[in-house]
Amino acid sequence: MRLALVLLAACHGAIAPRAPVEPMCRDDRIGRVSITGASAADVAPLAVLEGALDDEARTARTVTVASDFLHARGYPEASIEVARQRGCGVELAVTVDRGPRYTIAAIDLSADGALPPGDARAALEDGLGAVNAVGGAYVADRMTRALDALVERYHDAGWLDADAEPPRATWDHDAHTVRVA
C-alpha cells in the first residue's frame, strides 16, 4: 500500500487530504419522507417527494392524489396525514390509515325492456378489471362516467331510449363488499 502511495505521489505530486464533504441540508428541500401504515409503493406520489423543493401546496395536492390511488385499489376509507418537521431540510412523516379493503360482490343491471346483446357489465370495467368489476374496487365517479359512455354507445347503436340512473352502492361493512345497482 505504501509503495502504491509513493508511486502515485511521484507521478501526480503530493497527495493532500481533503476536508469531508458536508451533507446537503437545505431548508428549501424535503430531506426525508418516512411512511408508516403502508409501503412506499402504496403512496408512491408522496415517497418520491424526497429531495424535491418543499412546497406545502404541492404536498397537499400529492396527498389527494395518493388518497385517490388507495381508493381505486379498494380502500374507500383510506386517509393520509402528513406532519412536517425540521431535520435535514424538511422531513415529512406520512401516516397512512388504509381502513378495510372492499371489493364489488355484484353489479346488478336492470332494464324496462330487453338489453342489447352482450354483457353490459364489461363496458363498466376500468383498470383492466381492477376497478368497477366484480372482485375489483368500486370508484363511484368512474362508474358514473362508464354508465354515461355505455348509454352513448347504446344511442349510437340505435337504442335511442337507453338511459341510466346514477349508480347506487350498498355497502356490507361486515363482509367488506359493495353491491352496485
Can you describe what's shown?
- The protein has 181 residues and is an alpha/beta fold.
- The chain contains 5 helices and 6 strands, in the order H-E-H-H-E-E-E-H-H-E-E.
- A 3-stranded mixed beta sheet has the order 1-3-2, covered by helices on one side. Strands 4-6-5 form a 3-stranded mixed beta sheet, with no helix packed on it.
- The radius of gyration is 27 Å and the shape is elongated.
Which ranges are low-confidence, i.e. pLDDT below 50, for 5 or more consecutive residues? none
The end-to-end distance, rounded to whole angstroms, is: 78 Å
The biggest sheet amounts to: 3 strands, mixed
Total helical elements: 5
Q: Secondary-structure element sequence?
A: HEHHEEEHHEE
- The order of strands across the largest sheet is 1-3-2
How large a portion of the residues is in β-strands, by DSSP E? 15-25%
Helix content: 25-40%
Please state the structural category.
alpha/beta
> Shape, please?
elongated
